[in-house]
Amino acid sequence: MAWGPGRARSAAVTVRAFKWGDGTRAAYARPRAARWSLMGARTLVAVARDDGRFDCRLAHWGVDADPLAQSRPLATGVTAAGVWDALDATVERLIVLDGTVCTYCVCWLDPTVSDPDDVAVARTGDPDALRDWWTDAKSRASGAVAAGLPPPLVRAGLLVALRRRAEAVHVDDASFLRDDR
After folding, report:
1. pTM: predicted TM-score of the whole model, two decimal places
2. Pick from 177, 25, 165: which is nearest to 95 by CA?
3. Nearest-CA neighbor of 60 among 88, 90, 81?
């Protein structure tokens, strides 16, 4: 149920967020409807620093020509693992700025759509085409689970197809932020 002025809010769930300025994670409760309704086309922008950490920025409606001008500060001094922890199904893209611009699509792997933290990042030169393809592939995968196929098998098939389609795919590992840019 959507919420707004005068409407009841849904049950609270725990979501991840950064504390301003210190780059650590904190948990807070927010209604599930609010989490998804405020999503937009969220882009996490990670700006590499000389000390190996990142300054993170967030854009709610995506970015095009200038990721820094189109995003707002989120956290400073974040480790590579902290950047990975900030990714979930509510983030559509990750842009890493380290002298070059690397664009990654954040792909929600869970075909049962129950675990928003089950994501992979896929580097591509055409993120719009990959996103369109991923949306179709994910829809077919969810249909396969609904038809009775085991979710782990369907998830594995999604990951294989994604690896064939993208230049690089990373799952559960932030090492790409250090050495595969």
Report:
1. 0.73
2. 177
3. 90
